[in-house]
Amino acid sequence: MSEEVRAPINREHVVQILKTIYDPEIPVDIYELGLIYDIQIDENNNISIKMTLTAPSCPAAQSLPIQVKERLMQIPGAGNIDVEVVWDPPWNADMMSDAAKLQLGYF
Questions:
Q1: CA–CA separation, 101 vs 107, rounded Å?
Q2: Full-model pTM
């Protein structure tokens, strides 16, 4: 039997998907909000995400990482998906993109 050949997944596709996931309390997607710290994709299309939340007591602490994993699993050819919530460095408003800051009135 031959191994299945998977088309490589690129970072831009992963970012596009992350931009469809919103913090339930803030009307900005998690990527622009600065909650995604690292995206790694290996040669087998395994995707590893390091993300944080706006606060350890965030009501979405259980749901957001699961939502990220479920959405990324829908990418055709995706391998294993690992989503790790990290707290270092702690999130702050400076981590938001300029677009998110503008949307939330930080300018």
A1: 7
A2: 0.89
